[in-house]
Each structure stands twice: as structure tokens, then as C-alpha cells.
Amino acid sequence: MKICIIGLGYIGLPTAAMFATHGHNVLGVDVNKKVIDALNEGKIIIEEPNLEETVNLAVKNGSLRAAMEPEESDAFIICVPTPFKPDKTADLSYVEDGIRRIIPYIRKDNIIVLESTSPPGTTRNLLGSILKEAGFIPGEDVYVAYCPERVLPGRILKELKENSRVIGGINEESARVVKKLYESFVEGEIFISEATTAEMCKLMENTYRDVNIALANELAMLCEKIGVNAWEVIKYANKHPRVNLHMPGPGVGGHCIAVDPWFIVEKQPETAKIIKLARNTNDGMPHYVFEKIKDLTKNVEGKIKVCILGVTYKPNVDDMRESPIIEVIQLLKEQGNFEPVVVDSHVDFDGSKERELYAAAEGAHLLVLAVNHNEFKDLDFARLKNIMKCPVVFDTRNYWDADTVEKAGLEYHLLGWGRNKQ
């Protein structure tokens, strides 16, 4: 088939590469000319293992190319962002723009698939109404379905192929046709459902994780007050065969977990009470971490230098979408007497990519482990002790061994460990 993929971001580009290396002729469309130019040279501008090699192979074979405008195709797949607005409601402008951009190129018996995470009813109501306006009857003239991804950054190509998929058709025939398309590269089981069910399934997968993390974050705050270690509580509680507590942290980031639950709250605000409370709990963690930083530096006079390790939303990726660490940094800057200095080799945030860790930590009053990147695991703590003005560290990820840090002469603090209460 000739497949046109709208949106070449963290999902659209790997999806295009997978289809292109499994027998299809793929055109990728994006509004970012840098993305287009890079892809046509067999390169990528995001960080994802093995993706550039796969893209390069497909471009050299002539099965993958990119352009600013769509073309007539057999199948159209929309993989655009769905952020939320300041009021936490879904911004579907990119989805609407994506479907309207392909309308002039759609022909009878084409396939239209929405992969973007969306509020329940988006496929039927938004895509369906626009297609009807253009003179197409969804499910009869064109096959329409919702097929969300289930991948983890850093493992996207592997999980696109191996993970199971849910395909929600506008009708049974649409689901069947789209299933056949995805079977060309998906090795995991493909389940057929209807569109709104598939949309709700995607939202609940991430909402489950968000609620679980909120429980862990609340536990961390409780343990600090009670005087125990939340990480030990979680470790031993998870020995129970039916318990799987997630881990606490400075907040929840990424385009999925930090966003998707709001799409449910938007549709049913009076009913989704637990979901909203969990979102508010996790959204409040950056401020909680900020208050902890203030407390740990309360005896420092004048300008307080805080060296922050990591700014992405999760370890070993270059994705900063909804990163809670960005909010922590902003709170520090707004306070006025803090000088946050960020180190992160994965992204260029205030010069973080080129900044050497020990140079950044020199003269610091506090070192904050914000993201557990691999490169932060085995640090020279004795060296840090000698170059910092105040040898104090705050680990928000339970990444460092407390004994190792303290034997080097530093004062160690861990999010969720209320040692000072014992």
C-alpha cells in the first residue's frame, strides 16, 4: 500500500519507518521543515535507539520519503500531538488540521486511522463529521478506525512490533481492514473493538499508572511525616502477589500519563473524582520538591546555587514534554534567590547539554538528582564533597546508595524517607 502518515514526531516517525521496512511505500508529512529535510537525508532529529538506522535503510530503499503536503494514498494515518489547554481540556486543533489536510486527497475505499491519544468520541464525532462534510460516509465509502500506540520511549521500534494493539473501528468492516494493514508489521496480538472503546482503553491504560503513581507520591509524603522509608515500604509491599505499587518521584511527565487522564475528567468531571485527585496530586509534586529544596537550603545566606541533574521527563531520553523538573526550575527562578544550574547530556536546556557535571556542581549549595540518567549513577562523591560549598544532595529517585554518599562526606536526603522523624 501507499501510506501517508501525518505527523513525524515520537510516534509518527517510528510508525512510518516500520511500515516502510515492511513492504509499504510511505510518505511522511510534517509542518517542521527540519524534520522533512532530515528524513529525506536518512536522518532524524529525535533520540531513539535504532531509529535512524531504520529510517536510513527505508530512505535508501526508496520506500520512505517526507514532504510538507499529503498525496493521494491508500491509507492515511494521523499521528499528531493532542496537548491540553490551560483549562486542562483537550486541544484537538492538530487532529482537526490533520484530517482537513488529507480531505482533498481521500478517495473511495481509503483507510483513515487516528493514532493520536484523544478524548472518547473523537474518532466518531470529529473525524466522522469532517468526513461527512466532505461527502464520505464513514464505514461505507472509507474505512475509519482508532489505533493507539502502546510504546515506551527508548524501546519504540521493538514495542511497535511486539506489543499487542487494539483497533477500534467505526464499524466492524473498518476494524477488519485496518487490522490487516497493521498485521504487516505487528507481531503482537491485535484485538478488534469499536472506536470509542479503543479511545477509552488507551486513556485508562495511562490513567491506571497515573493513579498508582499518585498513591506512591502520597505514600512518600506520609512516610516523611511518619519517619519511615517509602521505598522500603513499596519494596516489601510488592512482595505480595497481588500488589504492584509504582514509584514516587518529583512529578509525572511525558505526553501520555501527565495528559491522558484529563481527557476523561473533561468528559465526566463529576464522576472522575479519583482520577482528578490523582492528577492534582502528581501535578503538585514539583511544588513539594521545591519546598523540600527551600528547606534543605534554609540556612544559606545570599544567592543559593542548586545543581540539578536531569531535566527530561524520564531517564535516558531527550523528551521534555510535560517534564515536572522544568516546573521545579521555574519555581526556583521565580523565588529570586536561587541559581539553578542544569546538567543533562540528552537535551539543550539552558545550556545543559554541553555542561560538565563537576564544573556545574562547583560551589553549589545543593545537588538534586532529578532524573536517573545512566550517566549519573556512579559519581565521584568524594570529589563532589570537595567542590561543593555545602555538601548536601537530594535524591528524588532513590538512585544513589545512602551509605556510599555519606561515607564520601556528603549529607544525603531522599524523597520519601523521613529519617529526621525517627
Report on this structure:
By secondary structure, the protein is of the alpha/beta class. The protein has two domains: 2-199, NAD(P)-binding Rossmann-like Domain (Rossmann fold, 3-Layer(aba) Sandwich); 227-422, 3-Layer(aba) Sandwich (Rossmann fold). It contains 16 helices and 13 strands. It has helices spanning 12-20, 33-40, 51-61, 93-102, 122-133, 156-162, 172-182, 195-226, 230-237, 260-267, 273-283, 285-296, 324-335, 357-361, 381-387, 402-407, and strands spanning 2-6, 25-29, 64-67, 75-78, 111-114, 143-146, 165-169, 190-194, 304-309, 338-343, 366-369, 392-395, 411-414. The strands form two sheets. The protein has an eight-stranded mixed beta sheet with strand order 3-2-1-4-5-6-7-8, sandwiched between helices. It has a five-stranded parallel beta sheet with strand order 10-9-11-12-13. Helix 1 packs across helix 3 (51-61) and helix 10 (260-267) packs antiparallel against helix 11 (273-283). The N and C termini lie far apart (66 Å). The mean pLDDT is 96.
